[in-house]
User: Which sequence fits this backbone?
């Protein structure tokens, strides 16, 4: 038996180490996971209540079209109801976009390095992957534009970029959009947009309104704190959304996810409080990296990538022994670590552990 030849070499996704595994393996009682950009403040109480209210309907299929959630979100965003598509996380929207648009021979352009799911799903569809190196940790949009050919189908822009955390500005995106052919779909992955109030950060909804070839992706996994429910969405022109909908599984988002997402959209106080506490945490971490003489990329989401100036695999292991799970081993950044902004207490615990590790591990020349 042979699978599709193009998937044979694909790795199985390696998630951030689960807390329970780390506790067991290292005999630790307290472990802090700052590896997967999860919300350290949990989720809205309204979302929890909405899940409880759905428990009695567990035996009934969800509304495949997510009508109630679509209504709420469309009016909040100021877009048409036919401009939204929901997925089991925005990961599934990425999968559906690849499934709907890419065939063998198509080219798809992305940064290197960036969120792994663009490449992963494009490889499954047998598309040719064109990776364009980051420049100072940022998307190099002019270089990406230069790679566009008549075989190009999708350009993926991760904004802010995971793992580096840098953003593409309005000005940069405007120049890019003015030149990219309308036949090329531009995916703006905005998983962290709700954290950002920098005026130079572009709002994907504006670009969906201005251009026929844009789809913006957002998620309930990050600021809304609903990662385990698996729900995210895409915003685009109705014709693009229709194509993506055509490849969607009938019941791809659950009742709990839809109900909790809808409730979470209404809890503006929770979102604001997460945004404020995250901004405070970002400030704290960046100040501490400066104090320790460690450079870092400018951060906009709920994570920071910094240069530990030592092999990141070793720093990762040493932090792990002190009960802190981080993300390391980036292809082009062998001494960098990506750290999620935690609660104040978690951030302080991390900095304490990092200071000790920096003393224990020799600087890489
Ligand atoms: C977390 C993340 C996502 C998706 O998360 P889901 O849980 O699948 O919604 C998408 N893109 C980026 C860049 C992310 O960091």
Assistant:
């Amino acid at each position: 038996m042979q699978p599709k030849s193009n998937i044979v070499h694909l790795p199985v996704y390696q998630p951030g180490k689960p807390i329970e595994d780390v506790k067991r393996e290292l005999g630790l009682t307290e472990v802090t996971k700052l590896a997967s950009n999860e919300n350290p403040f949990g989720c809205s109480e309204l979302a929890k209540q909405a899940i409880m209210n759905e428990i009695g309907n567990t035996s009934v299929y969800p509304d495949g079209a997510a009508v109630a959630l679509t209504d709420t979100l469309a009016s909040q965003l100021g877009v048409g109801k036919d401009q939204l598509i929901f997925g089991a996380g925005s990961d599934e929207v990425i999968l559906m976009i690849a499934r709907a648009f890419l065939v063998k021979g198509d080219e798809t352009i992305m940064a290197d390095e960036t969120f792994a799911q663009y490449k992963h799903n494009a490889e499954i569809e047998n598309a040719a992957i064109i990776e364009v190196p980051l420049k100072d940790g940022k998307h190099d949009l002019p270089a990406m534009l230069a790679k566009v050919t008549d075989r190009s189908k999708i350009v993926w822009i991760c904004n802010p970029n995971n793992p580096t955390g840098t953003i593409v500005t309005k000005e940069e995106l405007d120049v890019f959009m003015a030149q990219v052919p309308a036949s090329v779909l531009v995916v703006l992955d905005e998983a962290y947009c709700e954290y950002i109030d920098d005026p130079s950060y572009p709002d994907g909804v504006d670009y969906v309104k201005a251009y026929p070839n844009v789809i913006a992706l957002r998620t309930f996994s990050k600021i809304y704190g609903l990662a385990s429910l698996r729900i995210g969405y895409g915003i685009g022109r109705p014709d693009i959304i229709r194509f993506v909908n055509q490849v969607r599984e009938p019941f791809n988002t659950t009742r709990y996810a839809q109900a909790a997402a809808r409730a979470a959209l209404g809890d503006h106080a929770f979102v604001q409080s997460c945004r404020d506490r995250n901004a405070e945490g970002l400030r704290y971490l960046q100040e501490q990296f400066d104090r320790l003489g460690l450079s870092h990329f400018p951060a906009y989401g709920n994570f920071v990538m910094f240069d530990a100036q030592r092999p990141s695999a070793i720093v990762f292991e040493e932090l792990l022994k002190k009960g802190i799970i981080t993300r390391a081993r980036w292809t082009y950044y062998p001494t960098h670590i990506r750290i999620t902004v935690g609660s104040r207490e978690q951030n302080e615990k991390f900095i304490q552990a990092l200071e000790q590790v920096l003393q224990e591990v020799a600087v890489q020349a």
